[in-house]
């Protein structure tokens, strides 16, 4: 038997491995052959998943029987305990935010559950491990396959269901606010949409690490909730001018870092001379208010501002794995210590995904909305 990648040399000692690498491959083991024959005999196994029947409103979501995920060598198969809603899934349902090429076509960017199988190349996870994971898609299902590097042990002290509320928000906030924009103790931080899943997590982790936190939200109830989570300055964007309030609270300096999930509606106001301090950093992670705006470069240049944006879903598996490890090292200890807690507004069965989407689009919720298979 000759294995893929075997090394050959000619009489001069030249390595000819590349000439033979594709021609000689390892024969399947007896066990693999038996499994393959059994699979062919039984046919594809199935599970339930939420399917977008056609781009449109929440009513296009239907729970259907689909084939089980195909497990690759570097992946683990998770029996899903819960998945959480994200704005990206609203956009995908509408047909304006397709999944990355080659990724799972179903909705769901994070999940929690129990490992049911591991790929041949995976050594650090075992069947039965209780985990949560960052996904490129597929969380709205009974099972999902995910690269092993994007998996985290479910944090102790948090229910396995509620652990599904952490992967997307923790990886998004940590990679943008801390890894890229370097928010540090003693600095000021403004997060728009403080009562959202992103916002409620960002408040807690920023306070844990010593920042002064400003938030905007649209009701007294939401602002009170943000205050209870640790926000220092809470601004009702419907009744107050957040630019003026930030200027007042910072004695004209402006904040050091802004995390904006809204988009064009707030973009120019974020860049206002009274919103960001000198060397201030603005990070854009959403387009809820639209996708196009204008920028006055004179403002950016005069205050040495940094503007960044990134889409976590389209990052490479290697990059996601690096972020996951950073989250494991820096965020998970705060969760285990009870300094950062899951904020779950409501649970829905997977069959009621349409109702869950309606709730999210109403913006009446605080924190995360979970689906349970």
Characterization of the model:
- This protein has 373 residues and is α/β, with parallel strands linked by helices.
- Helix content is 30%, strand content 24%.
- The protein has twelve helices and 15 strands.
Summarize the structure.
The protein is an alpha/beta fold.
Terminal CA distance reads 45 Å
Low-pLDDT segments, ≥5 res? 1-26, 288-292
What order do the helices and strands follow?
A: HHEEEHEEEEHEHEHEHEHEHEHHEHE
Shape: globular
Largest sheet: 7 strands, mixed
How many helical stretches?
12
Structural class: alpha/beta
Radius of gyration: 23 Å
Helix content: 25-40%
Per DSSP, what share of the residues sits in E-state strands of 2 or more residues?
Answer: 15-25%
- What is the typical, i.e. mean, pLDDT? 85
DSSP strand tally: 15
Task: Record keyword descriptors for this entry.
373 residues, 12 helices, 7-stranded mixed beta sheet
